[in-house]
Amino acid sequence: MKTILVTGGSGFIGSHTCLALLDFGYNLVVLDSYINSSVIALKRVIGLSKTQKQSAQNTLHEVRGDIRDYKLLSKVFVEAIKNNAPIEAVIHFAGLKSVEESVREPLLYWNVNVEGSRNLFRVMDENNCRTIVFSSSATIYASSTDNLLTEASELKPCNPYGKTKLAVEELLRDLFENSENNWRIANLRYFNPVGAHSSGEIGESPLEKPNNLFPYICQVAIGSRKQLQIYGSDWPTPDGTGIRDYIHVMDLAEAHSAALEYLFSKQSKLLNLNIGTGKGTSVLELVKTFEKVNGCKVPYVFSARRLGDVSKTVANNQLSIRTLAWEPSRSLSDICRDGWRWQMLNPFGYSERTH
Ligand code: NAD
Ligand code: UFG
Q: Which atom of ligand 2 is nearest to the CA of 228?
């Protein structure tokens, strides 16, 4: 059984991916600072894992720490070697992800996302671990066009968050091209990950007011927020609202185990892959589907366009499908049903708050 280090593994995408990886049979070391997540998430992951509860506990080892901490990271690698379970690959989720905060705090974003990643790659290199799956983002592409985005589309992020993601991809390319050692790298460019595990036990738990559409819809539907503001009704789209490619978080999670398996089968590789469904959904379509599937109301008003938004971002996902032998299998209705189940069972996410 191979051991994988998962940075940021207690977060939204990380926790769902840990479940997929445990069920795939990997041994996990999860490193997280818990700056944007709860210790409860991984406890629930262990409870959900198909492996016997006891054995799942044995195969998921949690370490509280920061990816910028060189000594700690080195210790994690060295201890794994001592325990005869050397880390053979890293899935790197840890980082900050708010576009709006990145505009206010570019130094922080470059420090955590870029410096933190550089520190991680240095420790990996020193410990002969050169296989990595990196959480990149569709936000690195230039403004959308009418066409689906392919991996060869122009790269031109327009906010500091996106620039840090592109910088890490570029660093990984330099490592791949210039190192004498064989790196195996998959940059997964996520489109819009949403929904929750079908059990409703794990899901997205924003600590503050959500910035993103799907968690906002859930909070309006349950009554913790009065109404949704739809940012713009005059986009050049059929119903005037923005179009995105929403992918079920479990489909995204499974893309990570597929990417690992693919990398392990190669000597050396650099891959950039779009992880989306290839289907565009407008804000209004998502609201209507959510209401229909869950039999609830999502009151909304139209407001001005949000600064920095684009009309349409949809993936051409053919390269991922061909390369990874993976395909998203869950529908928009599944996304709405599973996301709502999580919201109903956990009205305050993982927190105990009762406001
Ligand atoms: P998340 O905030 O839920 O998870 C990130 C995790 O990293 C959290 O558990 C957080 O505590 C941890 N973390 C943050 N800084 C850390 C540090 N310095 N050291 C150790 N741990 C740290 O976010 P997510 O939605 O699960 O996103 C995971 C990754 O995917 C991020 O890199 C994000 O940029 C990327 N991504 C997310 C989306 C999205 O819409 N959710 C889209 C594209 C890319
Ligand atoms: N929207 C609203 N009201 C809201 C929130 C969003 O109308 O309250 C609209 C937006 O204008 C957009 C759509 O819903 O048309 C989706 O917005 P999100 O904020 O959910 O997602 P974005 O596509 O703007 O961005 C997300 C992540 C980025 C990531 C990107 C990848 O926030 O970090 O997807 O495509 F890079």
A: 8
The pLDDT-based confidence of 354 (bands split at 50, 70, 90) is: very low
- Three-class SS state of 190: strand
Give the per-residue pLDDT at 146.
74
Residues of the chain with pLDDT > 90, as a percent, come to 90
Count of structural domains within the chain: 1
* Mutational test site, ligand 1, from 40, 45, 69, 93, max ligand atoms within 8 Å of CB: 93
Q: Does the Cβ of 302 fall within 6 Å of ligand 2?
A: no
Tell me how far apart the alpha carbons of residues 273 and 262 are, in angstroms, rounded to a whole number: 12
Q: CA separation (Å) from 135 to 76, 197, 283?
A: 21, 19, 25
Look up 70 and say whether it is catalytic.
no
CA of 213 to the centre of ligand 2 (A): 6
Residue range of the domain that includes 283: 3-354
Q: What is the CATH number of the domain that holds 158?
A: 3.40.50.720
Task: Name beta bridge partners: 149.
Answer: 315
Q: Is 204 in the pocket of ligand 1 (CB under 6 A)?
A: no
The bound ligand whose nearest atom lies closest to the alpha carbon of 95 is 1
Confidence of residue 52 (pLDDT cuts 50, 70, 90): low
Q: Kindly state the average pLDDT of the residues 255-270.
A: 97
Q: What percent of the chain has pLDDT over 70?
A: 96
Pairing of strands 246-248, 192-194: parallel
